[in-house]
Amino acid sequence: MGIGGIGIGPLLVILVIVVLLFGTKKLRGMGTDLGGALKGFKKALNEDEKPKDTTTESVEQKEKDTSKN
User: Fold this and answer.
1) pLDDT of residue 4
2) What's the Cα-to-Cα distance from 51 to each of 20, 47, 58, rounded to whole Å?
3) Does residue 8 contact residue 2 with C-beta atoms inside 8 Å?
4) What's the pLDDT score for residue 47?
């Protein structure tokens, strides 16, 4: 049994059809673009997490400062 209930034979046929339709250069370019998009997405997620931590710290610091007064 292959992926999603499709056997290995039909998966190979689908792969051959896709290669014939798009060509290897186009598929390679699409793979590169997809990899770059995923890398950018992960980088954006990591950048989003960092400011949240600093904002939490600054809010906590402000609360401490106001409680002292």
Assistant:
1) 76
2) 47, 7, 10
3) yes
4) 83
Q: What's the mean pLDDT in 9-35? A: 93
Alpha helices in 1-69 (DSSP H): 8-22, 24-68
Cα separation, 46 vs 32, whole angstroms: 21
**Percentage of residues in the chain having pLDDT higher than 70:** 67
3 state SS of 67: helix
Cα dihedral 36, 37, 42, 48, rounded to 10, equals: 130
Residue 63 C-alpha from the chain's centroid: 36
Ramachandran sector of residue 23 (left: φ over 0; alpha: ψ -120 to 50; beta: rest): left
